[in-house]
């Protein structure tokens, strides 16, 4: 497959959600919707951990049509949705194998713990953030502690409606 992009919306202080895991603070607009639609045209697989799945499920957000969803969890015994493949084996090994197959790009959604395992395994190629102009004060952090520094190269930076800023970085090798 193509590159793996870790994509997420976050607050200015790099929080992914409120302390109760809600994301009612997200600022939607037609511009954001169009950017997301363009992004999904380049993707045929999405990766997410259990906590992200649970947060998305609370929002009643539909799965992206035509995109294979992989849910990574060591605690779930079966997939919560028949169209979602549950992966309970080593995430880095599974993703490395998936990435070596033919296909479009892969999106890694959500948060910290799962994404950290992919950053640590050098599997993330790009980081795409939609930074919202607010401070949540508490909640899960975007990046839990990493074992090393990861250098980035700015690919794109643009201002969106509501004062959001979209930035994309390439991981330097």
The shape is globular
Major beta-sheet overview: 8 strands, mixed
Radius of gyration (CA) equals 15 Å
Distance between the termini: 19 Å
Q: What is the CATH topology?
A: Dihydrofolate Reductase, subunit A
CATH class label? Alpha Beta
Number of domains: 1
- SSE arrangement, N to C: EHEHEEHEHEEE
What class do helices, strands and sheet pairing give?
A: alpha/beta
Mean pLDDT: 90
Q: In a nutshell, what does this entry contain?
A:
With 173 residues, the chain is α/β, with parallel strands linked by helices.
Topology, element by element:
Blueprint: E1 4-11, H1 30-40, E2 43-49, H2 50-58, E3 68-72, E4 84-87, H3 91-99, E5 105-109, H4 112-120, E6 126-132, E7 152-159, E8 165-171
Parallel strand pairs: 1-5, 1-6, 2-3, 2-5, 3-4
Antiparallel strand pairs: 6-8, 7-8
Question: If you had to describe this structure to a student in words, what would you say it looks like?
Answer:
- The structure is a single chain.
- The chain is of the alpha/beta class and 173 residues long.
- The chain has a single domain, classed as Dihydrofolate Reductase, subunit A (3-Layer(aba) Sandwich).
- The chain has helices at 30-40, 50-58, 91-99, 112-120; strands at 4-11, 43-49, 68-72, 84-87, 105-109, 126-132, 152-159, 165-171.
- The model has no long low-confidence stretch (mean pLDDT 90).
């Amino acid at each position: 497959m193509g590159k793996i992009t870790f994509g997420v919306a976050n607050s200015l202080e790099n929080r992914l959600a409120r302390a109760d895991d809600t994301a009612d603070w997200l600022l939607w607009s037609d511009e954001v919707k169009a950017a997301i639609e363009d992004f999904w045209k380049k993707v045929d697989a999405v990766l997410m951990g259990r906590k992200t799945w649970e947060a998305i499920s609370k929002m009643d957000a539909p799965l992206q049509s035509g995109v294979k969803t992989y849910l990574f969890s060591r605690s779930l015994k079966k997939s919560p949705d028949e169209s979602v493949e549950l992966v309970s084996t080593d995430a880095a090994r599974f993703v490395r194998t998936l990435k070596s197959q033919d296909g479009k790009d892969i999106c890694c959604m959500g948060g910290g713990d799962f994404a950290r395992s992919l950053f640590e395994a050098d599997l993330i190629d790009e980081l795409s953030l939609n930074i919202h102009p607010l401070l949540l004060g508490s909640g899960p952090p975007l990046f839990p502690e990493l074992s090393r520094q990861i250098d980035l190269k700015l690919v794109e930076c643009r201002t969106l409606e509501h004062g959001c800023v979209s930035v994309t970085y390439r991981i330097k090798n």
